[in-house]
Amino acid sequence: MTPTMRCVWLAGICLLTVGFVGPAPDDAAPGTTVTDWHRVGHRGSGVTVAVLDTGFRGYRSAIDRVLPSGTTVRSFRTDRNLEARDSDHGLLCADVVNAIAPDAKILLLNWQPGDPTSFVAAIAHARKAGAKIVTCSVAMPCWSDGEGGGPVHADLRDLANDVLLVASAGNLAERHWSGPCDPDAHGWHRWAGGATRNSIMPFESEPVSIELTSAGGDWEFVVVDSQDAIVASARGLTSAIARFTARTGREYSLRIRGEAGREFHVSVLGGWLKQHSVRSSIPFPGDGADWLTVGAWENGRRAGYSSCGPCGGSTKPDVVAPVPFPCRLRSTPFGGTSAAAPQAAGLAALIWSRHPSLSVREVREILHHSARDVLTPGPDCESGRGVLRLPAITVPGR
Q1: Same domain for 223 and 118
Q2: What is the pTM of this model?
Q3: Which pLDDT tens digit goes with each residue over 321-339?
């Protein structure tokens, strides 16, 4: 028996997986679903979407099973290895794009860790290869000042005229702090209540990376354990990064030194930060004005982990997308803001397949204006313009 396509309806968007066909929800506006667009022939044909990520382990078998046979790849790592990291994160992102825009071409790209030049080169290659859209669901907090500024964003500015850059908002809302440095008599920043230590709660299975960024200043931080031993430290101008591996039964805390009154952002990758601030928690690349930034909408609200704006005065995220997303590469759905960004990329591919002459700015505006407003009226720093939705299209029989 040949399987049909099953519609999983979330906020008016039809997410496609193998199964049976179900009815649209009562509140889905006619012509606004992915299925409606597919029915009249708009499935992403003629559009290339580049997926920029660090995890493509098993991409050959994914192309055989799920991704289009014409999927192309390019590595900008120094070893030219697309599968260097033991992760399929980028394949999950590509699966989302393909589920929404099955006729779009897919280009898989990675870059050298810690090297923003190779990141920019990968996007430049995507443009040269004809990609109209680049989607990235990886966070690099220290590659900007935390407010959408910095040299990497500047290097990407010209590329953004020709390519729609899509980024996840990041899952750092409960793992980030920002504000002015408030040193005590010994130079240590005082968190809420005057405490000079902020507890870090590491995840069980991951190394921990502490990343501090600012528009300027000389910064120093240390991570100490429950015995007051220093387990990690870093110092730098505008940014600093330190990593450590947590030990079972130990407690850890963060101490920071910097210039009084200087604004800074600090993020914990691989753990929670006890004193955190949701505001302005979107990391690079999503903090940049040239990126269409997508947050996570879960169970009728912003997901608690989904990072928020503003970013350098810009309202961010731009939109939110429903998660988790049904996945064809594994038995469990794909969640987080990582699953949100490729949904916007897929919808953009459908729009361009119908209107190939549209500019990047015009497609971005269509996604803005088509979103279903939620939370407070108008754009806000939790949900942006609202939940992603396609513009209405005339569908025979509906």
Answers
A1: no
A2: 0.91
A3: 999 999 999 999 999 999 9
